[in-house]
Specification:
The chain is an alpha+beta fold. The chain has two domains: 1-43; 47-194, no CATH class. The chain contains one helix and 13 strands. The strands form two sheets. Strands 2, 3, 8, 9, 10, 11, 12 and 13 form an eight-stranded mixed sheet that branches. Strands 1-7-6-5-4 form a five-stranded antiparallel sheet, with no helix packed on it. Strand 6 and strand 7 (125-128) form a beta hairpin.
């Protein structure tokens, strides 16, 4: 091969090297950013629930805010004044389902039986107390929180036209309240539970919808169970 031929090959190799170096630099930057973002998400204890698709709620069109007891199919619909609580358990639990700017939003404070805050939702913006929670896992449209005993105390998911909710919580005096999916004689439905002299402890068990620990199963949902 002539010197000119070798020169051409060398120039091609140099050009390929420049292209590969550029691609390698961009890939390292791009995937480095993704890794950093993933680490931030795994470490986050605040966020916002956003339904993948949303149907605007409207009093005029009689499309009301709705809350479902988990995925039971039992649904409460709220047609009262905007901003008023759907259920008033006590002032410091703040369980409220509202329509705001055409969207369904939920607010709720989760406390343990000593009155310490575990987690809270304020119009779909959530915050978990890492000092008083065993773990939490989440996606863009769902959040689940486990208390220091490992029990699920909050499970919420934003769907296009409603909020799916299960929760076990207490007010500042230690009185307990549970809202969730229960199995009755006619199949799955919704249930409310209060503590009292005949029922000192909440008995509702909320099945996890996420895999744990979140460090190694971040954002991973459990496989849905076959219907009974």
């Amino acid at each position: 091969m002539s010197n000119e031929g070798w020169q051409t090959i060398s120039q091609i190799i140099v050009a390929l090297g420049i292209v590969l170096t550029a691609l390698g630099g961009y890939s390292a930057y791009y995937f480095g950013k993704r890794i950093d973002r993933d680490k931030e998400l795994r470490a986050a204890y605040t966020g916002e629930l956003k339904a993948k698709e949303e149907i605007l709620v409207s009093a005029k069109d009689r499309v009301w805010p709705k809350v479902e007891f988990g995925d039971s199919g039992a649904i409460l619909m709220f047609a009262g004044p905007q901003g008023e609580p759907l259920i008033r358990f006590s002032e410091d639990t703040k369980l409220t389902i509202i329509r705001e700017q055409g969207k369904v939003k939920v607010s709720l404070a989760i406390r343990d039986n000593t009155g310490r805050l575990v987690a809270e939702l304020v119009k779909n913006e959530w915050k978990v107390n890492p000092q008083n929670a065993w773990d939490r896992n989440y996606t863009t449209d769902a959040l689940e929180v486990r208390d220091p005993t490992g029990d699920v105390v909050l499970q919420v998911r934003a769907l296009s036209d409603r909020i799916q909710l299960q929760a076990k919580f207490y007010d500042s005096t230690g009185r307990g309240f549970a809202f969730g999916k229960v199995l009755g004689p006619q199949g799955w439905g919704g249930g409310l539970e209060f503590t009292g002299s005949a029922n000192p402890n909440l008995r509702l068990k909320i099945e996890p919808m996420f895999k744990y620990p979140s460090d190694t199963h971040f954002g991973e949902l459990m496989q849905p169970r076959a219907p009974n």
